[in-house]
Amino acid sequence: MRGLLLAVSLLLPVAAAADIVVRALMPEMAVVEVEGQRRVLHVGQTSPEGVTLLEADSERAVIERNGRRAVYRLGETTAVTVVPRTKAVTRIRPRQGMYYVDGAIDGKPLAFIVDTGATWVSLNANQARELGLDPARGLPAKVATANGTVLIRRLRLERVRAGGIELRNVEAAIMPGDAPPVALLGMSFLSRVHMVREGQVLLLEQRW
Prior knowledge:
The protein is mainly beta. Helices cover about 10% and strands about 55% of the residues. The protein contains three helices and 18 strands. Strand 13 and strand 14 (about 150-160) form a beta hairpin. It is globular.
């Protein structure tokens, strides 16, 4: 009996270490095994076991449980504990009834108008070319606008920054011609931050 208890006690640390295993990684999503239960989590989601996916790409996942954050790689049962980052905050004051914010796409500066009615970060074809983006490489799609149906190009941007907040792997739309004249910071970016108003000021806060 004593030997059995000793064997069980020796196994306990291994079981604890194996409570979380990342089985698949994708941009903004991961398949995580928690205490033997397989969960598909998108960034920001929490499993019934209390595991929250904070970040994910093709190489790693940042996971929080019981207030502790750690970096996991595919198939590993051990992780490196990380110190939580300070959340970036961007305060935007209205100008002529619009919320303009200085930002960048893939490190190249440009201005945005915050537009909750836009599905994606949107820019016109000329802006795209100035930023080094080739509209032809995007996936074609048709969208309805006030001027009728137009053919756009959809693609993913490596980095999009608005004020002090930068997100990776952001969906975008390239519009034909010169519209919109100012790039739109749409919901493909805004849905991934906290957005509240303090009086006339629009406050954007990075989630993680």
